[in-house]
Amino acid sequence: MQRQGTAQAADSVGPRVVLGVSGGIAAYKACELLRRFVESGHEVRVVPTDSALRFVGEATWAALSGQPVATGVWESVEDVPHVRLGQAADLVVVAPATADLLARAAHGLADDLLTNTLLTARCPVLFAPAMHTEMWEHPATQENVATLRRRGCVVLEPAVGRLTGADTGKGRFPEPEGIFAAGRAVLSRGPGAPADLAGRHVVISAGGTREPLDPVRFLGNRSSGRQGYALARTAAARGARVTLVAANSELPEPAGVDVLRVGTATQLRDAVRDAATDADAVVMAAAVADFRPAEYASGKIKKREGEEQAPITLRKNPDILAEISENRDNSRQIVVGFAAETDDALVNGRAKLARKGCDLLVVNEVGEHKTFGSDESEAVILDSDGTVTPVPFGPKEALADTLWDLVIRRFS
Known about the structure:
Elements lengths: L1 H10 L4 E6 L8 H10 L3 E6 L9 H8 L15 H8 L2 E7 L1 H8 L6 H8 L4 E5 L3 H5 L1 H12 L3 E2 L3 E4 L5 E5 L3 H13 L12 E7 L3 E4 L2 E3 L6 H12 L3 E7 L10 E5 L2 H11 L5 E4 L6 E3 L20 E3 L3 H7 L7 E8 L3 H12 L3 E6 L10 E8 L4 E8 H16 L1
Parallel strand pairs: 1-2, 1-3, 3-4, 4-5, 8-11, 8-13, 11-12, 13-16, 16-17
Antiparallel strand pairs: 6-7, 9-10, 14-15, 17-18, 18-19
Helix pairs in contact: 2-3, 2-9, 4-6, 5-8, 9-10, 10-14
């Protein structure tokens, strides 16, 4: 009876996560990441390096995880921790990952418990780098990151912001909430799922452009950016280097993603074209205004009693999707468009696919209470080869993963 109870308890254990912590000042932020994993039902073993323990002590990790903390290869030798921890894990997350840790991982060194664990792990591995800008941009670090990505590891892009001391730049530790979301996305793909976008650069537009009429008014739309952000999160979880061009979205930045913020259609066009020069795929999920005011009023347009307001003249905005499709930087670049329709969605979608010249087109019905601002969506994805892929109503992350599956099929 006791054995049966033990077996049932083992079956009830959530996904097993190894949280590796290397020796950077951002180690204290990993405590919040640990708390999120534990509170969502994951069993977490923390493996800090000796340097990490200078920032956060062993007792803190043990208290937050509810598990013994593995600190060295010579502890509990009878359990062979340098092998067992990696073998038993469903996910290994290294946060923060310093330049030194990335270098040792890329070169297969095994000089402490964490690097031993990385060598024995056969599950997905996710790195959340944090270091000074100069260290991140150094060719040695970039080559180590490229090596890890080629091997199928997910290496998030560091954030941009305040670093240690007065320095500011790229290299800041991504927010724990974002790293947690990326880890959950990796786990959701199931055991053994490859980082099938590793080595790829994808550019995604999101949100809705705003065309200013005067200092306080603009022409815009209801797009929140949720679908584009879901595409960015899922692409990063599948190993891609992601550039997100975000138009007027108030959503938190996805961890590990380079975010470029824009306002108008012209600004979005310039940012996407610049980012797409080395992109393997460009996904235009943003709702781009078709028109802009022909003239901008430098002062607020006032309503005057007894006078009719002069009509507002509109001018067409550039057709960014058609331009990207026609002027691709390489013949292998995949271009994806979105069609938000209020009626005759498939008919209009097929016409738009032919007119825009893109490879894939995501067609969905929109309205005041449909799609825009919602966490769920349903759509049909049209392929220029005639294939039609329906995506049932569900989370926007599910639509994003289906779309990436189709993009990857085109890569092959």
